[in-house]
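User: We ran a pulldown and think these components assemble together. Before we commit to crystallization trials, I'd like a predicted model of the whole complex to look at. Sequences follow.
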Amino acid sequence: MFQTTIDHVGVEERAAKLGQRSIKAATKVQGIKLALSMIDLTTLEGKDSAGKVRAMCQKAKHPLPGNSEVPHVAAVCVYPNMITVAKQALAGTDINIAAVATGFPSGQYPLDIKLNDVRSAVNLGADEIDMVIDRGAFLSGHLSKVADEIALVKEACGAAHLKVILETAELETYDNIRKASWLSMEAGADFIKTSTGKLSQAATLPITLVMLEAIRDYWYETGKVIGMKPAGGIRTSKDAMKYLVLVKETLGDVWLTPHYFRFGASTLTNDLLMQLTKEMTGMYQSVDYFTVD
Amino acid sequence: MKKNSEAPHLEIVESRRLLFGDLWDYAPSPEKPVNLKKHYDLFIDGKFVPAKSGKTFSTINPATEESLAEVALADEADVDRAVKAARKAYQNVWSKMKPAERAKYIYRIARMIQEKARELCIIETMNGGKPIRESRDIDLPLVAAHFFFYAGWADKLDYAFAGRKARSIGVAGQIIPWNFPLLMAAWKIAPALATGNAVVLKPAETTPLTALHLAEIIQEADLPPGVVNIVTGDGGAGAAIVNHKDVDKIAFTGSTEVGKMIQKAIAGTKKKLTLELGGKAANIIFEDAPIDQAVEGIINGIYFNQGHVCCAGSRLLVQEGIVDVVTRKLWDRLRTLRVGNPLDKNTDIGAINSKMQLEKICSLVESGVDEGARMHQITCDLPERGFWFRPTFFTEVAQSHRIAQEEIFGPVLSMLTFRTPEEAIERANNTPYGLSAGVWTDKGSKIFKIASKLRAGVVWANTYNQFDPASPFGGYKESGFGREGGLHGLMPYVELI
Amino acid sequence: MTERLAILKTYKLYIGGKFPRTESNRYYQVTSAKGKLLANASRGSRKDIRDAVVAARKAFSDWSGRSAFNRGQILYRAAEMLESHAQTFIDEIMAITGKTKKQAGDEVTASIDRLVWYAGWADKYMQLFSTVNPVATKYWNFTYPEPTGVVGIICPDEMPLLGMVSKVAPAVVSGNTCVVIASETNPLTPITFSEVIATSDFPGGVINIITGFKSELCGPLATHMDVNAIDYSGQDEKTISSLQEAAATNVKRVVIRRTPHGNDWLGDTSQSPYWIEPLVEMKTAWHPVGS
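Assistant: Here's a predicted model for the assembly, 1081 residues in total across the polymer chains.
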C-alpha cells in the first residue's frame, strides 16, 4: 500500500484555488440540479417527530413543487426510530433511506449494541447505514480495533450500503484524516463521510480534497470506486458548486453522480432552490417564498 | 436513480485512467476586454510624447494575433531625452526631497494601482497572454504590495545598513522582460524611487502596455516630472540605455545571453549593474514528500505563466522509488489543466507570449523527442489563431539532453531521477544556472541540508514559485547577481558612505 | 430666524470596537482654555480597565496572526482616515488647549505622518531584529521577534493626539493589542481618534481607549495579571515608581519614557524601530541539518 503525508499549507492552497472556479449560466443551473440530486436530506435531532420527517420526505420527493425539471434528492437521512415513517412517506419512489447507527454521534457504545443498532435499522428498511468510527480508539492508536469494527458493521449491513463517518474535526490533522479514510475503505466502506454534523466544525474543502485524493489512490490500487459524502456546514449553492469542482477535477466524471457523491445537508436544499429560481427568473429571491420543512 | 440499482458500468476502471470529461463542464466566463487607446506615446519628463522619429510599432494580443495598439518606437534620441529628464529631476527635485515625502508619492502609486487593479490585470492578460486568474491573483496584488513595501523604506534607510549611510546613485536605466511586465516594472521602479534615484525604464517589446498605464498612474499621482520615464521600443532602445553616458546604474532582467552582452558593454564604465537572468531550476521530490502537494508544486513550478518564468522548476528530479506514482499523478493532474482564452477566469494555461518564443519551445521539444526522451503531452483543443503550446512533460530524460540543460521558457518539464540525496544535490547543481530550486520532503533536517548545498538564490521547501516583496530574489552563477525584494533589494540602488 | 442649535457629542469610551459608557457612570468636566464647558468626559473605572483587557486579549490571536502586510495596510488606512478628518482634530485641539492653528496643525500632520511611518515598519522591523545564528553544531538556528501580548499604554497628558499615536502605533504594528489610558487633561481628542480607529479596518479590541484619572486607572492596569507590558510616557516620578513596582506582580515588561517632552514629540527623534523592539519577545529556534 502506498501512503503519503499531507502538507497542511499546500492542501489548503490547492483547495482554495479550486474553490475559485467561475461557475456561470448553464453550468450553474446544471450544477445546482446535480447537487440537488446528490443530497442526503437530513434531520437528526432529539426533537424529530413523525410529522417533521413526513414533511421532510415530501420536500425530498418534490423539492420545488410544480417544477418537474427539478430532481428529487438522493436519500433522506434519519435516526433509526424514524425509518418506518420515512419508508411509508417515500413508498413508490426511488429515494433511499439512510439511517445513522452504531451509537451515533459519539460511537461510545459496546460493539454488540452498535451491531444490533445496524441490523435493526436494516430490518426496518434502511438502504444505507451511516456509521461513526471510534475516534477515541483511532486517536489512541488502536487502528485495528477501528478497522475490525467497520468490517463487522459492513457484515451487519448485508445489502445496505455503508457510509463511514470519520468525524474529521475530532481527528484534527490531515494526516489522520487520510489514514482514517484509507483504513475505512480497506475495511469495507462504500462511502466515506466527513462529519456527524453535531460539531461546529464539519466538512471543509481541504478535508474533502484529502478524502477525495485518498479515494483516488485507493482506486488506483484496487479499482474499487468508493463514494464521498461531505456533511455539515455546506449551506449555500456557491459552496456546493465548489465541492462539485473538487470532485470534477480530482476524480473526474465517474464520481459526479449520486452513486458516488452525496451532500449531507438540510438547509442547503433551499438555497439551491433559491439560486435555481434566480437563474430561471433573473431575479434575486427571498427565503419567504421557499417552504421550510 | 434506481433504488439499489447497479452503478453505471465503469469501463474506465479497467484501464485505471480517471475520466476528465464534459459531464459537467464550465461555461465560458471571460472578463470583458478593456478599451485601449489606439496610440501610446513615450512617457518622458512627466508628459506623453511621440518618438522623435515618429516611428511606431504594433503590439498584439498573442491569444488572437490581433493588433491592440500602435506604440511609439524609441531610439537613441528618445532615450537621451529621457535620461536628461531623469538627470534633471534627480538633481533638482527627487534627491533633495525629504525621504518621508518621497515615501508618500510611492504610497500614492501603490494605492492607485490597487484602485485600478482590475483594468490593469485585464490589459496584462490581453497584451501578454497570461491567464487572467494569474494576473488578477498574483501579478497585480504583488505589484501593489511591492510599491507599498518600498514606500516604507524610503524614510527608513538609516536603519537598513549598519554603520553606514545610504546615498542614492543617480539615474537608473532599467530593462525588463515580457513574462511579468508590470510586476517586473514594480520590482525595478519601487526600490529605485525609495532610495532616491530617477528612472528610465524600458518595457519588453512585446508587452509595453501595462507599463504605459503605470505611467498614467504615475502622472495622476503627481510624481515630479522626469523622476520616472518610460520608453518603449526594441533592443535598440535597450542598448541606448545601456550605453548612455549619463546613466549611473543598469538593472536588467532577461536572458543570460543579453545579460552577458550588457555586462561586457558597460565594462570600463562606472555604471553599477544588477542582472536577473535565466534558470534551469531543479525541483527535487524525495520519497518521503507529501506527494499530492508535491505534484501540485510540480504543476505550479513549470506550468505557472505558461512556463515563462525564469525560476520555473523545469528540471524535475524524482527519487527512484516514487517515479511511477509521481508520473501517474502528474499525468492525471496535467489532464485537468484548461488551456485557452487567457481572459477566461477558468483558464489555467494561456497563450505563449510570441511567435518567436513558440518557435523556440517547439524546436527544443523536437530535440527532446529526437534525443530519445519520452514525451507526454495532453490532447486538448487549441484556438485556431494565436500562439499555443500544450502542457508537456518528458520522462526518460538524460542529464545530457538539451531539454535537461537549456532553458525552454515554456510549459515543458523534463523529469530525471536520482537515488540518494547526494546524487540529487549533484544533479541539481550540475548547470551553469543557479536561480532557484525546490525541495520536497517531510523531513525538516533534510530540507536544511539540501537547501544549504544547493547553489541557487532561492530555495523553496514543500512549495514552489512563492513571491513576496519582503523576500529577496536573485541568482547564483549565470542566473545573475544582485537581489530584488526585501531589505537586500535596496543595496543595488544605493552607495554606502 | 433663530440660530441653529448644535448637537453636542457624547464622549464615551472605546472598548472592543464599541463605544460603551463608563461602567461606573461617572464623568468629569472638560473645559476650554477659556474656561467654557466643552463636554462631560467619561471617568473610567477599574472595571472599564478589566473589560478593556478582556477585549484586548480576545483580539490578540487574530491581530498577531495577520500578515505584516495586512497590519501595515490598516495602519496606513488609519493615516488616510486621520488626514480626511484633520480639520476636526485641529479645531478640537485648539478649543481645548488654546493652541494656535499652526501648533494644532503641526500636531495633527505629525500624527498622520507618524502613522504612515509605522505602517511602513510592519513588514520591516522583523528584518532588522532577526538573525541567523552561526552555532557550532549541526543546527540551523534563528532568532526572530514576536509580539509580547497585551500592552498597557499610559499616554502623556501633553499632545493628546500625537502622544497617543506615537505610543500606540509602535505597539500594535508588531501584533500587540493594547489598553490605552488617554491624556487626562484632554480626553476628548483621544476619543475622537477612536472614531478614526473604528473606521480603519482595525479589528475591535486591538486598540482600547479609556479616559479618566490616571490616579485611579494606572494601578489596576499595572497590576492586571493578563497584561504583558506597561508603556508609560510622562514625567511623574511617583507614578513611574509605582508602575515599576506593580509591574513586578507578573514580570511585565516596563517601558518608561520621560522624553520626548513638549515640542520634541513633533520631531523625528520621537519615532524609532527601537520603540517597537521593547514590546516584542525574541524567539530562537533550533533545527537539525542533515539528510
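Residues 1-14 of chain B have pLDDT under 50 and may be disordered. That may be worth checking against your pulldown data before setting up trials.

User: Thanks, that helps.
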